[in-house]
């Protein structure tokens, strides 16, 4: 709990009372290209690490654009515990999360990937998501865990349909997910893999993050750098 609920996130413009208006932005890259490029850096790296490293690149670009320190950005990473619940005979939904520090000070995508892989492996090894699930059953703990000093933004990554999807006879080529923000967390990133693409949907409070496109462009540039590095480009 001390590790995940540490109040070490920097204050940013994302810590605000959100209004009713939103801005959205998008980024995408080939799933297969990202997967193979990441595995070329280290076979232990996962697609979730790629997602977080790309978001770190987007946040790095945004912090630089805003003239803010390139540090102290923490993300909440949702985790499904449904499989564990089913194995134990508990059919109730069990959703949890863990918190990681984004290495926004690292300029290179490879360095960010490796740093995040070390973090996520540690979180999984120590069963942080399970511990947080149990702890946040207490409302007081759950409220404290929502502090913007605990995490800056939420980044979710879910697999989409593996088979082709058609609408009125036309194959879906891209699929994006847009998830609403929470108060004091004025940006949310939702990622879905479908149609051979890894697609990022960004939703932000319109007034607090009127430059959300900067984050999306930074994510796209990070994915381009990852793929280009693997191909020697």
Strands, count: 8
Task: Note the main sheet.
Answer: 6 strands, mixed
Which sequence of SSEs, written as H and E, runs from N to C?
EHHEHEHHHEEEEEH
CATH superfamily: Nonribosomal peptide synthetase, condensation domain
The computed structural class is: alpha/beta
Number of helices: 7
Major sheet: arrangement of strands:
1-8-7-4-2-3
Shape descriptor reads globular
Our measurement of the CA-to-CA distance between the termini, rounded to an integer number of angstroms, reads 43 Å
Concise summary:
By secondary structure, the protein is α/β, with parallel strands linked by helices. The chain is built from seven helices and eight strands, in the order βααβαβαααβββββα.
Structure write-up:
The protein is α/β, with parallel strands linked by helices. It has one domain (22-228): Chloramphenicol Acetyltransferase (2-Layer Sandwich). Helices cover 38% and strands 22% of the residues. It contains 7 helices and 8 strands. The protein has a 6-stranded mixed β-sheet with strand order 1-8-7-4-2-3. A hairpin with a 2-residue loop joins strand 5 (166-167) and strand 6 (170-171). The longest helix has 20 residues, at 47-66. The radius of gyration is 18 Å and the shape is globular. The model has no long low-confidence stretch (mean pLDDT 93).
